[in-house]
Amino acid sequence: MTLDDLTNFFGWWTLINLVLYLITVVSVILYKDKISVFQARLLGVSPDDLKPLYIQYIARFKLIILTFNLAPYLALRLFVS
Questions:
Q1: E strands within 1-81?
Q2: Residue 81 has pLDDT above 80, yes or no
Q3: Are 3 and 76 in contact (CB under 8 A)?
Q4: Phi-psi label, residue 30: left if phi above 0, alpha if psi -120 to 50, beta otherwise
Q5: CA dihedral defined by 32, 49, 22, 79, rounded to 10 degrees?
Q6: Do the Cβ atoms of 12 and 73 come closer than 8 Å?
């Protein structure tokens, strides 16, 4: 695998994860009331306690994307170019 292949891989992987991130954020914003009842029963948590959990999940998801997808992509772009 060449550096160009690796750069393309991280670029596409970043794009895919950003799309999944946006879908997650939109679904939490739009359908929070509907899914919170189901997830509260599933996790054994009250629906009021889910709001901080949603925020933590979205924040961690963003940090993971930045750390493991975008940072290697940018580093490879700088190194290969």
A1: none
A2: no
A3: yes
A4: alpha
A5: 180
A6: no
For residues 77 and 81, what is the distance between their CA atoms, to the nearest angstrom?
A: 6
Give the span between the Cα atoms of 23 and 42, in whole angstroms: 21
DSSP state of 44: T
Counting Cβ atoms within 10 Å, is residue 73 exposed (0-12), middle (13-18) or buried (19+)? buried
Please write the tens of the pLDDT for every residue from 27-66: 999 998 888 989 999 989 998 899 999 999 999 999 999 9
The mean of the pLDDT values for the chain is 94
Structure-token pair, residue 5: 């292949």
